[in-house]
Design goal:
The chain has 550 residues and is α/β, with parallel strands linked by helices. It has two domains: 301 residues, FAD/NAD(P)-binding domain (3-Layer(bba) Sandwich), CATH 3.50.50.60; 118 residues, FAD/NAD(P)-binding domain, CATH 3.50.50.60. The longest helix is centred in the C-terminal third of the chain and has 22 residues. The structure holds flavin-adenine dinucleotide (FAD) and NADP nicotinamide-adenine-dinucleotide phosphate.
Length: 550
Amino acid sequence: MSAQPSAATRAAAYDVVVVGAGFAGMYMLHRLRGLGMTARVYEQGSGVGGTWYWNRYPGARCDVESMQYSYSFSEELQQEWDWSERYAPQPEILAYANHVADRFDLRPDIQIDTRVERAVFDERANIWSVTTSDGKTVTAKFVVLATGCLSNARVPDIRGLDRFKGKVYHTGHWPHEAVDFTGQRVAVIGTGSSSIQAVPVIAEQARHLTVFQRTANFSIPAHNGPLSSQQREWFRKNYPEIRRFEREVARNGIYTQQPDRGALDDSDNERRARYEAGWQHGGTVFMSVYNNVLLDKAANDTAADFVRGKIAEIVRDPVTAKLLQPDNHPIGSKRICVDTDYFATFNRPNVELVDVRTDPIEEITENAVRVAGKDYEADALVLATGFDAMTGSVAKIEIVGRYGQTLNQKWAEGPRTYLGLMSAGFPNLFIITGPGSPSVLSNMIVSIEQHVDWIADCFAWMRSKGLAAMEATKPAEDKWVEHVNEVAHTTLYPQANSWYMGANIPGKPRIFMPYIGGVPVYRQKCDEVAAKGYEGFAMTAAEQRQAAAS
Ligand code: FAD
Ligand code: NAP
């Protein structure tokens, strides 16, 4: 038999294969174009936008203000785009992603409806072979995983789910056509950020809504509203300083007042006034009122008590109010939620809260969710059950590095990276916002741009030095992993069973995955590493590659 590849499997050579066409993949492609590198972006969805392509559930919107949750790399773009609201709704963010794709003419190099299934590194040639769901294999010098931290929707393993006769939706995989719950009995499972946004909107449509809560969550009101042209202009005029601040000053990459004291430094009255001002201002900024809320349990309790008090004021039925008050994790140790009328929704006569912490969901029948022997009937089921976060989408690709080792084998006890950017044993494979980088603890677009710029600058440097390959060294990686863990354990974060810890996925190793050191410190570290000739990375010269390959 001939070993000739068929036309369908013939290899093409790119400088870079990028996996994913969300904000990370699109900006990566733009930078690669600027370097004159050839690139192919593969996206399994039928369009660009990533998170904002998939999460079309009612009420979906960003919780970092839109004037900040947007690209900064193009002055023209940030001056010309008009955000309509303080927190833009999903369709508008998706429209923005599409605008970016068109404005920078990205689409010719993006192949949609195509999953990357496998990537294998050829050690002799320093080349990756990438196999896609259309049966083709291409080769590339570099692979960049822009696969997203929250892109692998998780369907819980609940008995009987497949028997349910009504429609089943996952918030992270919402249909493109409009879903109308009018007149229906709807069951929502989960009470994380997605549910907290969706519940108030679904409650307005549905005849009856039952919310199944395992863990009550802290949520801060968004106080969303239209943006005036003056507000937009203020941001546009001040963008140079705002963007500098996001990158160099704010731990979370968000331009906001920085705390100058701890929660216990103020008197009870002063503290209450500050929390009240934070609550009235709205959004994640509430967590920045004091500088030690995530470091000191006593300080944390003051913020948690304040929010529990607000819940008790808003929710009329005391039993429901009590159930909605989080009591098993420090505030902020699970991602703080931002809502519009979430708690008040439980005052509606058509909304019911069911506690599934004490009695987990037993099973799902043809027409109901069964808890403690009682059937809660439903016509539609909404799974707001989250994601296999940070590593889930990477793990779905079979990535084979040096010595035939797969990334899943290497990460079996938890992800190991140097700076969240590369993993030893996998040369020329880069991850955008990977585990071990600030990623999900920050304004993600700030972190995405930082990673993309670092990677693009690195490619340019490698070219200027005639290098064929680059790889994280094991000692540098070990030291970084240790540092990431050490910093995490100086905070209250590891006390919660959060997706940051992998705790939402049965069997997933309990490792705190993002880097807590903050955006400015992390950025500085990455810049220092680059300035020292990419310290902690091993380089292979092009001549070495040619010699090895011949
Ligand atoms: P994604 O947007 O997740 O894009 C990754 C893409 O890769 C996806 O389209 C996926 O289909 C594709 N992909 C994955 N694997 C493969 C494969 N094997 N082959 C081909 N394609 C693949 N962050 C904030 O900072 N502020 C917010 O307000 C905010 N709101 C959010 C709201 C929701 C509902 C969710 C789920 C997340 C939110 N986030 C927010 C985080 C958000 O994920 C990031 O802000 C950002 O959009 C991530 O961009 P990305 O390109 O890195 O990843
Ligand atoms: P999530 O925070 O992981 O919430 C999932 C919810 O489902 C949790 O309440 C979880 O309970 C529950 N759950 C899972 N399996 C269950 C089961 N078998 N029985 C009962 N309950 C179950 O997921 P998410 O709400 O989709 O949010 C994920 C992240 O995406 C957020 O933290 C945020 O970073 C981002 N996001 C942001 C926004 C925004 O406002 N811009 C909106 C949505 C998402 P437990 O807590 O007990 O595990």
